[in-house]
Design a protein that fits this description.
The complex is a heterodimer. By secondary structure, chain A is of the alpha+beta class. Chain A has helices at 14-19, 22-29, 32-35, 49-59, 79-87, 95-98, 112-122, 142-164, 170-173, 197-208, 213-233, 263-267, 276-280, 288-295; strands spanning 63-67, 73-78, 105-107, 126-130, 136-141, 180-187, 238-245, 248-255, 298-304, 308-316. Chain A has two domains: 14-156, Roll (CBS-domain), CATH 3.10.580.10; 172-316, Histidine kinase-like ATPase, C-terminal domain (Heat Shock Protein 90, 2-Layer Sandwich), CATH 3.30.565. Chain A has 14 helices and ten strands. In chain A, a hairpin with a 2-residue loop joins strand 7 (238-245) and strand 8. In chain A, helix 10 (197-208) runs antiparallel to helix 11 (213-233) and helix 11 runs antiparallel to helix 14. The longest helix of chain A is centred in the middle third of the chain and has 23 residues, at 142-164. Chain B has a single domain (2-109), classed as 3-Layer(aba) Sandwich (Udp-n-acetylmuramoylalanyl-d-glutamate--2,6- Diaminopimelate Ligase, Chain: A, domain 1). Chain B has helices at 4-10, 36-42, 57-64, 80-88, 100-109; strands at 2-3, 14-15, 26-27, 30-32, 48-51, 69-72, 92-95. Chain B has a five-stranded mixed beta sheet with strand order 2-7-6-5-4, sandwiched between helices. A two-stranded antiparallel ribbon of chain B has the order 1-3. Classes of the chains: A alpha+beta, B alpha/beta. Chain A binds chain B through residues 192-193, 195-197, 199-200, 203, 217, 220-221, 224-225, 228, 281-288, 290-291, 294, and chain B through 34-38, 40-41, 45, 51, 53, 55-61, 63-66, 81, 89.
Chain lengths: 332, 115
C-alpha cells in the first residue's frame, strides 16, 4: 500500500513562467475600470417591463443595472428576465418584479482577472462594477475584456516595434545602390592615455548596427593594433577611417610619416622597431600586423619612406569569402 | 572552471575596482603575458589575464577582448584614472603581491587549466 504520494503542490517552474502568455499577464495588469463601459444604460425600478423591451430593442443591449432615484444599485435586469416576463405575458409589471437582486459585483480597481474568475464561476454575461462606496461605476462584459486586451496587445506591439527600430535598420531603410556609414577618428602620436578608445568606440558602433559579436571582436582587435601603431610609430599621428556597409567593413589607417623601411620585415611576427620605453609598457611585441592579418579577410599595406603609410583592411560580413590576407582586389 | 569570488579568496587578491557579485562570474580560461599584442592574439573571451602591466592600456585590451578580470601581479598599482576607466568598462582589477608565475600556478590548481 502506497500512501507516501506527496500532495501535489503547484510550483511554477522557470520554463512555465516564461511560457505565461502576454494575455495572461495582461489579465493581471489591466484594471477593470480601464476596459469597462463606464456610462451604461440604467433602468429605474418603477419602469414597466414593456418599456424595458423597447429600450433593449432600441439600444441593442441584452441587460442593464437597476438603480433607484438616489443612485442605489438594487438589481440587474437581463434578457432572460425579460423572456420570463414575456412567457407570463406580464409586460405591465414593474422591473422590480422580474429583476435579479442577487448582485455579482466586481471592484473597479481590481484587475480584469477578478472579473474573468466571476464569469467562469457564475456563467453571467455581464458583471456590475462598483466603486469603493459600492455605487455603480459601470458594467463589464466578456466583450469589453476582449477589446481591452486586444488594445493593450496592439500598444505592446507598437512599443516593441519602436524599440527594435534601432541603428541596425539603417541599411534596410535607406535605399541606394550602395549605402555606407563612415566613421573617422584622428589618432594623436604618443597619446597612450587614449589608446584603444577609437577601437572600443568602433566595436560598440558595430554592435549597435547589428554586427555579430564575432565580427565586432575581430574588428576590435584589428583596429586596436592599427590604432596603437599610429600612436607608437608615427611622427604626427594619423587617421582611422571605418566604412561600414551591409556586406563588408573596410578599415583604413593612414599617417604622414615616417613610413616603413621594409614592409616585408615589418610583417614578420616578432619584428618591431619600438623603443625600450614603449616595450616596457607591453607594446612592441612585433605582433600587431600579424594579429591584424589573422582578424581580417583582406589586408594591404603601402608605405613610402619619409611620406607615410596606408594600411587597408577589409572584413566580409558573409561567410563565403576565403581569407585572402594581403590582397585587396580593387581600389574604389 | 571556477568563479571569481573563489579566486579572490583563495589567492588573497585585493579588489581595486567596484564591488560586484563575483560568485556569479565564471572563469573558464586564463592567459598570461605582459605583451599586449600577445594578449590580443591569445586571450579568450571572458578569460582572466595575469600581468605585471598596470598602465591604462590594459583596460582597452581587456575591454576589446571582453575579459572578465585582470590580475595585476607583484603589487604593481594602476593609477586612479586607470581604475576609473576599468569601472567604466566593467573590467575588474585584482591585485596580488605574488608574481605572475605563482598566480598562474594557483589558478591552475583551482581548475583553470590551459587546453
Amino acid at each position: 500500500m502506497d500512501t507516501s504520494t506527496p500532495p501535489k503542490t503547484r510550483i511554477v517552474t522557470d520554463q512555465e513562467a516564461e511560457d505565461i502568455s502576454r494575455v495572461e499577464e495582461l489579465a493581471y495588469e489591466l484594471k477593470i475600470n480601464e476596459v469597462m463601459t463606464a456610462t451604461p444604460i440604467t433602468l429605474a425600478p418603477e419602469l414597466r417591463m414593456r418599456e424595458v423591451l423597447e429600450i433593449f430593442r432600441k439600444k441593442r443591449i441584452s441587460g442593464a443595472p437597476v438603480i433607484t432615484g438616489d443612485g442605489n444599485l438594487v438589481g440587474i435586469l437581463s434578457m432572460e428576465d425579460l423572456i420570463r416576463c414575456l412567457i407570463d405575458t406580464d409586460l405591465d409589471a414593474s422591473i422590480s418584479k422580474y429583476m435579479t437582486t442577487k448582485l455579482i459585483t466586481v471592484a473597479n480597481t481590481d484587475p480584469i482577472i477578478e472579473a474573468l474568475k466571476k464569469f467562469v464561476g457564475t456563467n453571467f454575461g455581464r458583471l456590475l462594477v462598483v466603486d469603493k462606496n459600492q455605487k455603480l461605476a459601470g458594467i463589464i462584459t466578456k466583450g469589453d475584456i476582449n477589446r481591452g486586451i486586444l488594445k493593450a496587445l496592439e500598444h505592446d506591439y507598437q512599443t516593441e516595434e519602436i524599440k527594435k527600430y534601432r541603428a541596425s535598420h539603417l541599411f534596410e531603410d535607406i535605399e541606394s545602390d550602395r549605402t555606407s556609414l563612415i566613421l573617422r577618428y584622428k589618432i594623436k602620436q604618443g597619446d597612450f592615455n587614449r589608446g584603444g578608445q577609437a577601437s572600443s568606440n568602433i566595436k560598440r558602433a558595430l554592435i549597435r548596427l547589428g554586427a555579430s559579436k564575432q565580427i565586432a571582436r575581430r574588428c576590435g582587435i584589428a583596429i586596436y593594433e592599427a590604432e596603437m601603431n599610429l600612436i607608437i610609430h608615427t611622427t604626427e599621428g594619423g587617421v582611422l577611417r571605418v566604412e561600414i556597409e551591409s556586406n563588408q567593413i573596410t578599415i583604413d589607417a593612414y599617417d604622414y610619416g615616417p613610413g616603413i623601411k621594409d614592409v616585408q620585415l615589418a610583417l614578420k611576427p616578432g619584428y618591431s622597431t619600438a623603443s625600450e620605453a614603449i616595450r616596457e609598457m607591453g607594446f612592441g611585441a612585433g605582433m600587431g600586423l600579424a594579429n591584424i592579418s589573422r582578424c581580417v579577410d583582406q589586408m594591404k599595406i603601402e608605405s613610402v619612406l619619409g611620406k607615410g603609410t596606408r594600411l587597408k583592411m577589409r572584413l566580409f560580413l558573409e561567410n563565403d569569402h576565403p581569407n585572402n590576407a594581403l590582397t585587396i582586389d580593387s581600389e574604389e | 572552471m571556477t568563479d571569481i569570488a573563489k579566486i579572490i579568496k583563495e589567492l588573497d587578491l585585493r579588489l581595486l575596482t567596484s564591488e560586484k557579485d563575483f560568485s556569479d562570474i565564471q572563469v573558464t580560461s586564463g592567459y598570461t603575458s605582459d605583451l599586449l599584442s600577445c594578449v590580443m592574439a591569445g586571450a579568450q573571451n571572458h578569460g582572466i589575464w595575469v600581468t605585471l602591466q598596470a598602465h591604462n592600456n590594459i583596460i582597452a585590451v581587456a575591454a576589446l577582448l571582453d575579459l572578465s578580470a585582470i590580475i595585476i601581479t607583484e603589487d604593481s598599482i594602476p593609477d586612479p584614472a586607470t581604475i576609473i576607466k576599468a569601472n567604466e568598462e566593467e573590467i575588474s582589477l585584482l591585485s596580488s603581491k605574488h608574481n605572475s608565475y605563482w598566480v598562474v600556478g594557483k589558478l591552475w590548481e583551482l581548475g583553470i587549466k590551459a587546453e
